[in-house]
Amino acid sequence: MTRLLEGKSALVTGAGSGIGRATAIAMAREGARVTVADLAGPGAGDTVAAIRAAGGEAQAVVADVTRPHQVAAMVDAAVAAYGRLDCAHNNAGVAAGTLGAGGQRVGDIDQEVWDRMIAVNLTGVWLCMKHELAAMERTGGGAIVNTASIAGLVGLPGTHAYVAAKHGVVGLTKAAAIDHAEAGIRVNAICPGYIETPMIGDSMARRGERILARAAMRRLGQPEEIAEAVVWLCSDRSGFITGTTVTADGGYMAS
Ligand SMILES: NC(=O)c1ccc[n+]([C@@H]2O[C@H](COP(=O)([O-])OP(=O)(O)OC[C@H]3O[C@@H](n4cnc5c(N)ncnc54)[C@H](O)[C@@H]3O)[C@@H](O)[C@H]2O)c1
């Protein structure tokens, strides 16, 4: 059977852990040569090692998605190694809990935390797309998937900066899809529900029972379950899908 991303060059940010790692591994399994980017070098290295151990092709790049020069160098590295850029998963993100601000309301949060949440979760996606779109336009097209969240579709308690950033990602995705459709580039967003990664430790500690009670499937998702949807959105099998969101949340948003 033909693999979904055979011969394509793919880039994944935040690929040293969780959803990004699972996507990078799934893309490689489907035949892509993958640039595994993360702020954390050891995590990116572990992902590359897992891909190579399975017979795939990948390189690690250390890049902070909030740093313009590092983002430009990251995209250049993908093109230099694999000749072009066909697919990108802009996935790096931080939760309020990671910054020690989980559970805070609008009046409680420090501006430093707000700025960092917007910088990584929203501006970082814009900055990556700025360079990825240019690379894709040079070779006639591509597909981008931005990681938003169910927090990009509804409000959630105690995490307003994250909610604001993820709503921004959904809007940015729609606008980019319109602007770049004629160049042959599709842009979509994946909206995961609660997925079992290091990121949700704080949310689960604060309100894990309520979270599981609302999800129709009564369980957390696995990173691999998000990765499958991202691979499909990057593949030619989703050729008429652009400017939209795909929600993968075990039925959380259904209630
Ligand atoms: N886990 C969930 O329940 C869930 C739900 C919805 C959306 N998401 C989103 O999925 C994405 C991945 O999250 P995850 O759950 O896999 O978390 P994770 O913490 O396991 O992985 C996040 C990765 O992003 C990297 N990262 C953080 N800041 C970065 C930066 N400035 N530049 C480059 N890399 C950076 C981290 O080093 C880490 O490897 C995030 O955008 C997150 O908001 C997660």
Keywords:
255 residues, alpha/beta, Rossmann fold, seven-stranded parallel beta sheet, 7 helices, globular, binds nicotinamide-adenine-dinucleotide, oxidoreductase, NAD(P)-bd_dom_sf, Sc_DH/Rdtase_CS, SDR_fam, SDR family oxidoreductase
Describe the structure.
- The longest helix is centred in the middle third of the chain and has 28 residues, at 111-138.
- The mean pLDDT is 97.
- The chain has one domain (9-246): Rossmann fold (3-Layer(aba) Sandwich).
- It has helices at 18-29, 41-53, 68-82, 111-138, 160-180, 201-214, 223-234, and strands at residues 9-13, 33-38, 57-62, 87-90, 142-147, 185-192, 245-248.
- The chain is globular.
- 45% of the residues lie in helices and 15% in strands.
- It is of the alpha/beta class and 255 residues long.
- Strands 3-2-1-4-5-6-7 form a seven-stranded parallel sheet, with helices on both faces.
- It is built from seven helices and seven strands; from the N terminus they run βαβαβαβαβαβααβ.
- Helix 1 (18-29) packs parallel to helix 2.
- The structure holds nicotinamide-adenine-dinucleotide.
